[in-house]
Amino acid sequence: MTNNNQRSLGTVLTDTGLSLLAIAIAIIFIFPIYWAFSQSLRNPLDTFTVAGFGIPWVNFQPTLGNWIDQWSTPETVQSLANSTIIAVSASVLAIVLGTPAAYAVARFRFVRWKNRDITIWFLSQRVLPPVATVVPFYLLMRTLGLLDTHLSLILINATFVLPFVVVIMRQTFLDLPAELEEAAFVDGAGYFGAFWRVALPLAAPSMAATGLIIFAFTWNEFLFAVTLGSDKAITVPVHIAGAVDTRGVQFWFMGVRAMTVMVPPVLIAIIAQRYIVRGLTLGAVKG
Amino acid sequence: MRWTSRIRFVFLAPAVIWVLAFTIFPLGYSLYLAFYKIEQKVEITRYKEPRLDDQGQPVLDSKGNPRMKNVVVKNQVSTSTFVGGTNFKRLFNDPQLFEAVKVTATFVFVAVPLELAFGFLLALLFNRHIFGRPVLRATMILPIFATPLAIGYTFFTIFYEEGGPLGWTGIPFLSDPNWALFSVILVDIWQWTPFCFLVILAALQGVPDELYEAARVDGAGPWQLFTNVLVPVLQPTIIIVLLLRLAEALKLFDIPFAMTGGGPGVATQPYSLLAFRTGLRFFDLGYASAMAYGLLVVTMIIVILFFRRLRETYD
After folding, report:
1. pLDDT tens digit sequence for A192-218
2. Scanning A94, A136, A143, B14, which has the fewest C-beta atoms within 10 Å of its C-beta?
3. CB contact under 8 A, B295 and A268
């Protein structure tokens, strides 16, 4: 009995110690994001003089001045609008093209190119380094007169996230029993009817999560955004980079801009948590 | 109604055609470019033309002759000359490229293994009875999704040597070439360890408790538990994580771009950043395309190395 109690006391102490360690590690990982936030609230004069961990009200008097200043410049608003238009359109396009393909690979049997080969082909597009295609795309868009347009960035981003949609939605359809659609066939539904009215509604939550994750990918994309956008189609990351070139780093504004661009994808990460492991490993690991 | 109907191609075709169009075209085009030397020149032509007034009539001088003005027309022309394999040969004796390969290789061989190791350790830690695990786990996800470019600039302010939060250490985080590389690797580790952690944790939680129990009953110590139970069970997961991490490490671009601009000098300029600059800042398009192909070959080798495992995973 005593022995048992001692052991459980030992376990409690170990768990407490490990929990504290885990909390400390989580703080290290959140610190940079917190630091950007702290900087965004500082009076420019306080930038380098704030002591300690830069905690608002404790180490300095916070101000919303930087936020108001940045959010009232037309460039910020314009870049937010651009990023939203591009990311939403590219995500919708990729879902519309990718979901039927995922259904095909999950349900139908392909003979010459086996299902797994088609899946791996899509996956290998995801591994392709974007810098390998940036020069030809730049020249193509220049020839077509599409430089600095939303359309060029929508098309390219949709291409990059499309394989992701195929691989993730494939796993979603595989997890649904095919019997439901087969029952619909018996009731006289065709292939498209079974897909549209039976499989798709069941896959909707996963499709929404996939849409959110690819929205975040597109939102964060920088290489193509900086190559193709120069004025009218500047996205938020390019806006951030451009501001540095012209005036040097203004830490207080940088804080606002970094927070502005990071909030949407970070919120998505929290909302779509359940799907993230599967998403990030392209369906190879179930989370 | 069977699952072998030809209708399957109708479902599949749009995505396949789309991806083919948007990958075959650029890859083919850049292979073509790689055999050419492309130069952008500004052709200047000067000539004189009569000066016109508001009504479109020539302005006359006192002698009745039309006044002339000088016109300068600048015309950007790009010339391309076939140079055979020259661009590919340049790849092998370009000191700047060699430095860039070294930087990228450092990420592949130093940062990626560290991220896997830290991720694994963290996953083991979080697999214990941790208070508030859901909240802590959610916190750990944030670096994966935080915009890399913004992260780069944020770390620039954190590593700022005069007055930054780490300024008191006196370490030249960004101004010394070796420290700068160290700092960029540190940020990469910060960003990607959570990815390895999250995936390995998910796999760990899929390991049934009976497996541990059985091993313990057989008298396995912690080390044997690790090598004989955990490693074999986690192996498929770790291989997938490794593949994805290697692919991402070769793409590394945003964080050095924002944090160091590839500097000081070229100390933190990865391959992607050099190829981008060669093509789209210095407009040496042919050579940049050859560089892109170099990277493509390395990526393909990696995918092929993992191919057997991928077939098993997606069967």
Report:
1. 998 999 999 999 999 999 999 999 999
2. A143
3. no
What pLDDT does A1 receive? 43
Structure tokens at A246: 């012209």
Residue A178 contacts B, CB cutoff 8 Å: yes
Q: What is the pLDDT of residues B252-293, one digit of tens each?
A: 999 999 999 888 989 999 999 999 999 888 888 999 999 999
A150 and A213 inside one domain: yes
When divided into structural domains, chain A yields a total of: 2
pTM (2 d.p.): 0.88
Identify the CA nearest to A191 among candidates B1, B129, B267, B255: B1
Residues of chain A contacting B196 with CB distance shorter than 8 Å: none
Are the CB atoms for B262 and B268 separated by under 8 Å? yes
Residues 90-149 of A with CB under 8 A from B: 97-98, 100-101, 103-105, 107-111, 115-120, 122-140
Which chain B residues contact residue A286 at CB under 8 A?
202, 206
Closest-CA residue of A relative to B248 is A127
The stretch B66-80 carries a mean pLDDT of 80
Considering the four listed CATH numbers 4.10.240.10, 3.30.450.40, 1.10.3720.10, 2.102.10.10, the one that applies to the domain covering B86-313 is: 1.10.3720.10
> What digits encode the pLDDT tens for the residues B201-223?
988 888 887 887 888 888 877 88
Whether residue A132 and residue B292 make contact (CB cut-off 8 A), yes or no, is yes
The phi and psi torsions of B71 (rounded to 5 degrees) equal -120, 130
Cα–Cα distance, B239 to B164 (Å, whole number): 39
**Position A260 in a domain:** yes
Q: In chain A, which stretches have pLDDT less than 50? A: 1-2
- DSSP for A256-281 reads HHHHHHHHHHHHHHHHTHHHHHHHHT
Query: Can you give the three-state secondary structure of chain B, one letter per residue?
Result: CCCCCCHHHHHHHHHHHHHHHHHHHHHHHHHHHCCEEEEEEEEEEEEEEECECCCCCECECCCCCECEEEEEEEEEEEEEEECCCHHHHHHHCCHHHHHHHHHHHHHHHHHHHHHHHHHHHHHHHHCCCCCCHHHHHHHHHHHHHCCHHHHHHHHHHHCCCCCCCCHHHCCCCCCCHHHHHHHHHHHHHHHHHHHHHHHHHHHHHCCCHHHHHHHHHCCCCHHHHHHHHHHHHHHHHHHHHHHHHHHHHHHCCHHHHHHCCCCCCCCCCCHHHHHHHHHHCCCCHHHHHHHHHHHHHHHHHHHHHCHHHHHHHCC
Q: Does A80 touch chain B (CB under 8 A)?
A: no
Whether A92 and A148 share a structural domain: yes
- How far is residue B19's CA from residue B27's CA, in Å, rounded to a whole number? 12
- Is A279's Cβ below 8 Å from some Cβ in B? no
